[in-house]
Amino acid sequence: MADYVIEMLGISKFFPGIKANDNITLQLKRGEIHALLGENGAGKSTLMSVLFGLYQPDEGVIKKDGKVVKINNPNDANDLKIGMVHQHFKLVECYTVLENIILGVEPNTAGFLKLSETREKIINLSNKYGLKIDPDAVVENITVGMQQRVEILKMLYRDNDILIFDEPTAVLTPQEIDELMLIMKKLASEGKSILFISHKLSEIMSVANRCSVLRKGKYIGTVDIKDTTPEDLSTMMVGRKVNLQLEKKEAAPSETVLDVDNLTVSSSSSKKDVVKDVSFNVRRGEIVCIAGIEGNGQTELVQAITGLMKHKNGTIKLCGNDITNDSIRERSKKGISHIPEDRHKHGLVLDYNLAQNMVLQKYREPEFQKFGFIKFDAIKKYAQRLIKQFDVRSGQGVDTIVRSMSGGNQQKAIIAREIDKDPELLIAVQPTRGLDVGAIEYIHKAIIEQRDAGKAVLLVSLELDEVMNLSDRILVMYEGELVGEFKSSEVTTEQLGLFMTGAKKDKVSKEATK
C-alpha cells in the first residue's frame, strides 16, 4: 500500500494576472488530519478546488494510492472517494436535509425514489458521528452550524474517504467549533484522511497531525504539529514575526456617540420579538462588544441600528441626534460605518469590480462625480490607495471582479472602505471572520487606532479571544436581552460562557453601561 493516499505533485494553476498555485507539492497520509495554512489569497482554496475537480491544473499531477489520476470534475472526485465541504456551502435552501444529502445520487427503482432505506442510513450516520441532524428539516430554517453538518453528511453518505474542509470554522460558534473538532478526530480514527484549511492556529495545534504552509501561491514547507509552535507557523505563513498578543493602552472614553434606548425588534419571519427592550450606549474612545452565541438577537440589533431592519419600539441617537427613522444612507452620511456580518449580502456587489465596491457609499461626492458624471480616474486612484494601505490582494488590481477574490480579501476591502470614511461610530460585526493571523493583527490594530482617535466602536463577535482582547466593555446578549455587563479586564471566558448560555443573568440597565 502506498505511503500517501493523495499526492499533489508540482501543481500550478494560473488565472489572469496571477499565479494562484506555483509548483506546489502536498502529500496526505492515510488516517491523518493534515492542515493547510496560508494567508488570504495564498492559494489554499484553489489547490483544494484542483483536487476536487473544480479547476484543472496547468502543470503537475495528482496521485491516489500511488497511481496517477485525472480529476475532470467533482463527479470524478466523488468516484475516487474525495469529498469537500466548501467555505460557502453548496446547499439548496428550499430542500430538506435529506434531499440535499442525496442530491445527485438519488436512490431509485425504475425512476421512483426509494427514501426509506436512505433515511435510515442518514439517521445512522448522524447518530454514529454525533451530528444530531433532522433529515426532514428545511435547510433555510436551520443554523449555519447545522448546515455544515449536512455538508459533512453528504460526504459520509457517498462513502468518501478523503475529506476536504475549506475554512470549516469560519461561520461557527465556539461550541460548534469544539463539536466539529471532535467529529474530525473521530473520522480520522476510523481511517478517513482529512485536509483541513484554516487560519486559526489554535485549531490547527489542537486537531492536526501535520501542517503544510503556502505563501503567495508557493509551497513553504510541511511540519509535524508536535514539533512546532503557533509562533513558528505564523512566521512561516506571513514571512515575518507576528505579534499574537494584542497590545493596547487603557481606554479613555468621553461623551456618548451611540445611545440606544428601550429598543425592541420583531423577527422578519414571525411576530416574535428577537430584541427585547435593549438599552446601552457607546462612548468616544472605547470599544464595546456585544457577545453571545449566534442567533440571540445580535444580528437584528445591529440591523436596526444601521437601518437594515425596522424596529418595533425604542429610539436610537447618534451624537445626540435622533436617527431612529433615518434611512440607511442618512445614517451613513451622519457618521455610521458598518462592517456587516454577511459580506456577500450586505457588504459587496459581487459582480462589480474592486474600485466600484470601494466607492459604493461615496460615488455621489464631488471628489468622484461632477454634474452627475462619474470621475473614473479619481475612483481608480482612490481604490488603489486603499488596496495598498490595507493590503487587499487581487489578480487584476482595481479591475478585479470582487466575486473572484478570496473571502479574506473581500473582507479586507470592506474594512478598508468603512474605516476610510472616518466615521463617528464604527460597527464591526465579525470583522476578522475568515482572515489569517497577519490580517487579524492588522485589523485589530486598525480598530484600536479608531478608538484611540476618539471614535466609538461597537463590536459584535463570536470569537471569545477577540472579545476578551479587543473590547473595553462587554455586553452579553441572550435570547434578545442584555444579561451581563463587564469590563474585559475583570471577567474570564468561563464566566462569559455562563452568561452566553443563559446559566447566569444580571439585570443590565442603561445606567450600568455608562
Summarize the structure.
The protein is of the alpha/beta class. The chain has 17 helices and 24 strands. The chain folds into 3 domains: 4-238, Rossmann fold; 243-335 and 424-514, P-loop containing nucleotide triphosphate hydrolases (Rossmann fold), CATH 3.40.50; 351-422, no CATH class.
Topology:
Blueprint: E1 4-15, E2 18-29, E3 33-38, H1 44-51, E4 59-64, E5 67-69, H2 74-79, E6 82-85, H3 97-102, E7 108-109, E8 112-113, H4 116-128, H5 144-157, E9 162-166, H6 174-189, E10 193-197, H7 201-207, E11 210-215, E12 218-224, H8 230-238, E13 256-266, E14 273-283, E15 286-291, H9 298-306, E16 313-318, E17 321-322, H10 328-333, E18 336-339, H11 343-347, H12 354-358, E19 369-370, E20 373-374, H13 376-389, H14 407-420, E21 425-429, H15 437-452, E22 456-461, H16 464-470, E23 473-478, E24 481-487, H17 493-500
Parallel strand pairs: 3-10, 3-11, 6-9, 9-10, 15-22, 15-23, 18-21, 21-22
Antiparallel strand pairs: 1-2, 1-4, 4-5, 7-8, 11-12, 13-14, 13-16, 16-17, 19-20, 23-24
Helix pairs in contact: 14-15
